[in-house]
Amino acid sequence: MGEMRYRKLGKWGLKVSEISLGAWVTFGDVVKDKETVREIVKIAYEGGVNFFDNADVYARGLAEEIMGEVLKEFPRHTLVLSTKAYWPMSEDPNDRGLSRKHLLESVTKSLKRLKTDYVDLFFAHRYDPEVPMEESVYAMHTIVEKGYALYWGTSEWPAPRIAEAVAFAKANGLHPPIVEQPQYSMLYRERVENEILPEAERFGLGLVVWSPLAQGMLTGKYDEGIPEDSRFARYDQFRARYLTEENRKKVLKLKEVAEELGLTRTQLALAWVLRLPGISSAITGATRPEQIRESLGAAGVDLPKEALEKIEAILRDEV
Q: What is the Cα 15 distance to its own chain's centre?
């Protein structure tokens, strides 16, 4: 296992572990057993993970509560915590979106659930076309000024809207977004490589990417079909998106490349995402301790040029 490395978020001073742990799978989706969560988090933390990503909507607040409970065992300054707001949290018309009202109320509720005085990063969990950019950016600026969050960012925003937010913040002396959280993996790459990365680099934003394993497709777990307790058994949308015959063949071919390097396919997929200096961290999920152990094996791995060329040929169907 390599040594965990830490990368700056774009041009900004905050450093995050190149492998991080996201709460959607661990805390929000399946695992409700606190002891399992505690063990997963402990392995991650001891393996050098400092960035733990969450959102209010994961299990409707429960993910934040469980994470807050477990992470209070570690010194706060050693953690980079994030949460997000946008998705509806109730039927109330104002309990959603990126209005000033919802953002300020959300962040204070999240801090209570996380049992902390501040988060390091607060994400706008989607772009909200119903709210003027000036309202959302000013609200995020207030949240940073009040110390509820140290920085703010965007998640799954279109590139032109990120550019607009940065331009508006700069023109008005406000805190700009410093990080974007898009989906990115070997099987979902065009949007980040063609649209998001060039803008992020222009403005000095870091990227922390989710689903680097394409919802588990890249691990080889689905080589022979769909295991009963798997995510593809539970979620039609992910199965429809990733479980194609073409993808299955690619994932099987990647096995050889991984084995030549002494890696698993999970580790290969994570190291591949991190080959780009513009990507600050790959956010992984884990439902079992051995999964986080395996992901940590991608820390500090630099893929050789020949391996990258082989992977490219497989992904482009040239093999």
A: 15
Taking only the tens place, the pLDDT of each residue in 255-291 is 999 999 999 999 999 999 999 999 999 999 998 999 9
Nearest to 178 by CA among 198, 160, 151, 201: 151
pLDDT tens digits, one per residue of 247-261: 999 999 999 999 999
Dihedral (Cα; 28, 32, 35, 39), 10-degree rounding: -30
Q: Is 184 a catalytic residue?
A: no
Radius of gyration of the chain from its Cα atoms, rounded to whole angstroms: 19
Q: Catalytic pick from 45, 58, 188, 222?
A: 58
- Determine whether 269 is exposed, middle or buried from the number of CB atoms within 10 Å of its CB (0-12, 13-18, 19+): buried
Token pair 């809207």: residue: 161
Give the three-state DSSP class for 136.
helix
The model carries a pTM of 0.96
> Residue 148: exposed, middle, or buried by beta-carbon count in 10 A (0-12, 13-18, 19+)?
buried
Q: Which CATH architecture has domain 6-243+276-302?
A: Alpha-Beta Barrel (3.20)
